[in-house]
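Hi support team,

I've been running sequence recovery on a batch of backbones for a student project. Most finish fine, but this one hangs at about 90% for roughly twenty minutes before it completes. I'm not sure whether the input is malformed or the queue is just slow. I've pasted the structure tokens below so you can try to reproduce it. Let me know if you need the job ID as well.

Thanks,
M.K.
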């Protein structure tokens, strides 16, 4: 994607739809249907225990978290947390490299 429309530091799904619609010539309604379909496919696959590998982008998968005791920050009370599964995303080396290069260009190198 060329120039991403960013409001502040947050990019919304509507911004993604706008950017894709501009670059592909699809209508916003068509683009929104495609974006929603991609997101639904990812959610359904991860919920079904599948792994999604998008070369050059990254890997979506689920990871299990062990049961543990947590603490309510407001009251300090101990709260038991059951075993649970969470979605995780691991960016590809290409993705990491592009982010690193862009952020160094934007903010400079600290060294």
């Amino acid at each position: 994607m060329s120039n991403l429309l960013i409001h502040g530091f947050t990019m919304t799904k509507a911004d993604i739809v706008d950017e894709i619609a501009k670059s592909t010539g699809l209508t916003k309604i068509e683009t929104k249907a495609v974006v929603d379909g991609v997101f639904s496919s990812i959610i359904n696959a991860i919920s079904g225990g599948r792994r999604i590998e998008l070369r050059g982008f990254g890997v979506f998968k689920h990871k299990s978290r062990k049961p543990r005791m947590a603490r309510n920050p407001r009251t300090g009370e101990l709260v038991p947390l059951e075993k649970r599964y969470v979605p995780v995303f691991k960016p590809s080396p290409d993705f990491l490299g592009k982010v690193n290069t862009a952020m160094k260009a934007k903010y400079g190198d600290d060294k």
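--
Follow-up from support: It reproduced on our side and the slowdown came from queue contention, not your input. The longest strand covers residues 58-65. No action needed from you.
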